[in-house]
Amino acid sequence: MSTHAQRERLLLADLLESAGPNAPTLCGGWLTRDLAAHVVVRERRSDAAAGIVFKPLAARLERVQAEFAAKPYEELVRLIRTGPPRLSPYALKQIDEAANTVEFYVHAEDVRRAQEDWAPREVDPVFADALWSRLERVARMLGRRSPVGLVLRRPDGRTAVAQRGTPVVTVTGEPGELTLFAFGRQAAARVELEGDKDAVAKLEAAQLGI
């Protein structure tokens, strides 16, 4: 049975393939080639991928990622589509599902929403709940740099506090949109913001996410 992560992996690979190697993305200056290299390095070069969260290794990560970005683009897309090597932790279904469901969803939208003619994706209720469950668990981490209090709210009223404090801005939207907002894609997320005008402006400009 296909998992959420497996489905999002294939969707991301399809979008990268369709966009080609030099299309823009929502990832700070990265082209699709750079984004594809990031995904491959994260799954296949754990020695370098540690630089994603461990800043002293960031320079090594950049070098390795640049090396992969120089590879044929078709190869990068193929490596994403086929998945990690058998001995990788990501080859375990449980780890893949936990670590890659949101990762691949966000990056797929990074590709989709950077295109001029992008259209909203319809997210089924089961997947929406899966995204919300993960967002609830990491909301505080994603919102830790928010300069204002931040509450994420689904249309049905369920909420997650991403940052305590005042003034408070409440961001309302579907789980997928809230996920994108919390991961720093505020400008591309289809959400409604309620709160003091200055607080809203600060939140929209904040560096949210990992």
Q: What value does the Rg take, in angstroms?
A: 17 Å
Q: Total strand count, please?
A: 4
Instruction: Let me know the largest β-sheet.
Output: 4 strands, mixed
Structural class: alpha+beta
Instruction: Please give the order of strands in the largest beta sheet.
Output: 2-1-3-4
Termini separation comes to 30 Å
Written account of the structure:
With 210 residues, the protein is of the alpha+beta class. Helix content is 52%, strand content 9%. It has 9 helices and 4 strands; from the N terminus they run αααααααβββαβα. The chain has a 4-stranded mixed beta sheet with strand order 2-1-3-4. It is globular. The mean pLDDT is 91.
Quick summary of this structure?
This protein is α+β, with helices and mostly antiparallel strands and 210 residues long. The chain contains 9 helices and 4 strands, in the order H-H-H-H-H-H-H-E-E-E-H-E-H.
